[in-house]
């Protein structure tokens, strides 16, 4: 993600609108219409504003203990009709349950808690993570 990790700071993603526009452009450049967006941790800063502004462009979203969930009100989440799989590890006692508190207001959500997994549940228990993800994807067909 621009501005994170080892990437240089990027002015284009300094604002919420800039991050929405960035993701929109990535999808356009890749020729993706209505993708399913999997969004772990820090990518929530991109995915959540995109979901709230352009959720109709997504076939589904899988927030994996994302950051930034408290930046939005329950009423904002309640307006979103995008199918959602809220995922987190059972040993993620901080960000996973915190994200669930906000994301549970999404009307079309399911929750999957990955056993024996921490914040990076996709690394700690990839088998159960992928089982939950594939089940969600099959349900979208």
TrEMBL record:
Top-rank taxon: Eukaryota
Protein family: Belongs to the AB hydrolase superfamily. ABHD14 family.
PANTHER family per the UniProt record, alphabetical: PROTEIN ABHD14A, PROTEIN ABHD14B-LIKE
Keyword Cytoplasm in annotation: yes
Residues covered by the AB hydrolase-1 domain: 70-126
Subcellular location field: Cytoplasm
Protein's recorded name: ABHEA protein
GO cellular component: cytoplasm
This protein's UniProt keywords: Cytoplasm
Keyword Cytoplasm: yes
Principal subcellular localization: cytoplasm
């Amino acid at each position: 993600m621009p501005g994170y990790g080892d990437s240089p700071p990027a002015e284009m993603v300094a604002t919420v609108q800039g991050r929405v526009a960035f993701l929109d452009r990535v999808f356009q450049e890749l020729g993706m219409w209505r993708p399913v967006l999997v969004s772990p941790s820090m990518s929530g800063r991109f995915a959540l504003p995109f979901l709230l502004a352009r959720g109709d462009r997504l076939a589904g979203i899988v927030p994996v203990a994302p950051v930034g969930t408290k930046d939005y009100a329950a009423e904002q989440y309640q307006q979103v009709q995008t199918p959602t799989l809220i995922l987190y590890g059972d040993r993620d006692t901080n960000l996973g349950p915190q994200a669930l508190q906000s994301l549970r207001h999404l009307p079309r959500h399911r929750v999957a808690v990955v056993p024996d997994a921490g914040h990076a549940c996709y690394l700690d228990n990839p088998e159960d993570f992928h089982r939950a993800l594939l089940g969600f994807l099959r349900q979208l067909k």
